[in-house]
Amino acid sequence: MSGGPEDARRDELLATARAAAGGAYAPYSNFHVGAALLFADGSVVTGANVENASYGLSLCAETVAVAKVLSEHQSGGLVAVAVTGGAPGAAGKGTTVTPCGRCRQVLNEVAQLGGTDPVIWCDGVEPVETTLSALLPHAFGPANLK
Ligand code: THU
């Protein structure tokens, strides 16, 4: 941890994701996830997981954030994503939360549209910093349909 501007940006985005986890509707898993997507213009779009009594229909935090982006946000370049989760009020204090496989694909849609490979900050007692291309190599996206 160098304490430089990149660290400050990471810590701020993680704090935003933790706050977003407070909006989770997760009565079945009791696992509250928050995601924060940072764009090149400085805008941030958040999401929280939204579960359903038909369990398989539950939406992950990252997917909710991407739905917000593509439906109401003029997306520029997606530069960073912060993901956190845990028991209510304890996001970031437990195991590292990495985006699930489906969310990697969903995030790739926004990233590829803006031509970026976002850094992914995964919160937890053992945090992970990675990139979307590392989590989803050789991704299929909008560019492949041209
Ligand atoms: N979850 C997310 O919101 N994002 C992920 O990337 C992993 C899992 C949610 C889905 C479900 O509501 C809860 O976490 C437990 O799996």
Automatic annotation (TrEMBL):
Pfam annotation, one family: dCMP_cyt_deam_1
E.C. designation(s): 3.5.4.5
Assigned keywords, A-Z: Hydrolase, Metal-binding, Zinc
InterPro entries (UniProt xref): APOBEC/CMP_deaminase_Zn-bd, CMP_dCMP_dom, Cyt/Deoxycyt_deaminase, Cyt_deam_tetra, Cytidine_deaminase-like
Molecular-function GO term, any one: cytidine deaminase activity
Gene3D superfamilies assigned: Cytidine Deaminase, domain 2
PROSITE patterns: CYT_DCMP_DEAMINASES_1, CYT_DCMP_DEAMINASES_2
Enzyme class name: hydrolase
Catalytic reaction list: 2'-deoxycytidine + H2O + H(+) = 2'-deoxyuridine + NH4(+); cytidine + H2O + H(+) = uridine + NH4(+)
Domain CMP/dCMP-type deaminase: 8-143
Cofactor: Zn(2+)
NCBIfam families: cyt_deam_tetra (TIGR01354), PRK05578.1 (NF004064)
Role summary: This enzyme scavenges exogenous and endogenous cytidine and 2'-deoxycytidine for UMP synthesis.
Protein name: Cytidine deaminase
Species assigned in the record: Novosphingobium kalidii
